[in-house]
């Protein structure tokens, strides 16, 4: 296909969208795609549901790490471990939970506190990653549903050829066009969810990195406290 033909096809598609309206155009193509469009749409809706739920969870889990660790160190200096524990209890976020677990074992020694922080840190990482597998599943399922719909459409196209006993573009064009719609919508769904998935992974990595860095600072603060 020549470059001018590609530009012409894109221009025709844009003109068609503008003449009918974007929403109407999508509705028409969705209905034309057939039965497989509905599970693809369900994959998008449910997948986005998990995405927004995870965004809410990560927003609550995230705190100003530098400010929080300074507050904990200040509490340790002024009121000791008990005041630091109370500060963690009154704070939200993954780092506060990990600090709380470590400080509860501080009376057994710094090594015990460090082990508690490592153990609870692993639990907190599992909590942060909870639900991500479902988003990943819908990223994989949506294109497969689209390809399955395309295969079904191709089968119908060949059935049309067999029924008409001739190989004519007009016979196969409509079934093939409908078949390709499911692949298109499946891929678009996967792309949307993949972008959100990568964004969530980056936020989780940042929280985990801050948690590990601040945990080291807490252990150092406990060593300094024990020297006094």
Description of the structure:
With 228 residues, this protein is mainly α. Helix content is 89%, strand content 0%. The protein has 8 helices and no strands. The longest helix has 59 residues, at 169-227. The relative contact order is 0.14. Residues 5-10 have low confidence and may be disordered.
- Cα end-to-end separation: 79 Å
Portion in strands: under 5%
Q: Determine the structural class based on helices, strands and strand pairing.
A: mainly alpha
Mean pLDDT: 78
Q: Catalogue the unreliable spans.
A: 5-10
How many helix segments?
Answer: 8
C-alpha geometry:
rod-shaped
- Tell me the helix content: over 70%
Global Rg: 28 Å
Order of helices and strands: HHHHHHHH
- Strand tally is 0
Can you summarize the main beta sheet?
A: none
Features:
mainly alpha, single chain, 228 residues, rod-shaped
Provide a compact summary of the structure.
By secondary structure, this protein is mainly α. The chain has helices at residues 3-20, 22-32, 37-61, 65-89, 94-104, 110-129, 132-164, 169-227.
Write the layout of secondary structure elements.
Elements (H helix, E strand, L loop, with lengths): L2 H18 L1 H11 L4 H25 L3 H25 L4 H11 L5 H20 L2 H33 L4 H59 L1
Helix pairs in contact: 1-2, 3-7, 3-8, 4-5, 4-8, 5-6, 5-8, 6-8, 7-8
């Amino acid at each position: 296909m020549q470059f001018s033909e590609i530009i012409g096809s894109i221009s025709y598609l844009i003109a068609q969208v503008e003449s009918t309206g974007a929403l109407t155009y999508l509705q028409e193509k969705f209905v034309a795609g057939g039965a497989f469009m509905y599970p693809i749409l369900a994959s998008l809706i449910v997948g986005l549901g998990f995405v927004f739920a995870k965004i809410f969870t990560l927003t609550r889990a995230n705190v100003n790490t530098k400010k929080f660790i300074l507050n904990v160190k200040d509490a340790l200096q002024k009121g000791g471990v008990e005041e630091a524990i109370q500060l963690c209890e009154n704070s939200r976020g993954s780092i506060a939970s990990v600090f709380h677990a470590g400080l509860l074992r501080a009376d057994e020694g710094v090594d015990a506190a460090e082990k508690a922080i490592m153990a609870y840190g692993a639990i907190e990482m599992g909590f942060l990653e909870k639900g991500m597998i479902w988003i990943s599943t819908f990223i994989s399922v949506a294109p497969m549903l689209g390809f399955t719909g395309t295969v079904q459409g191709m089968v119908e196209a060949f059935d049309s050829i067999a029924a008409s006993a001739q190989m004519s573009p007009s016979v196969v064009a409509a079934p093939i066009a409908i078949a390709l719609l499911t692949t298109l919508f499946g891929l678009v769904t996967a792309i949307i969810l993949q972008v959100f998935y990568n964004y969530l992974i980056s936020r989780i990595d940042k929280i985990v990195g801050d948690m590990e860095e601040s945990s080291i600072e807490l252990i150092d603060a406990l060593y300094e406290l024990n020297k006094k």
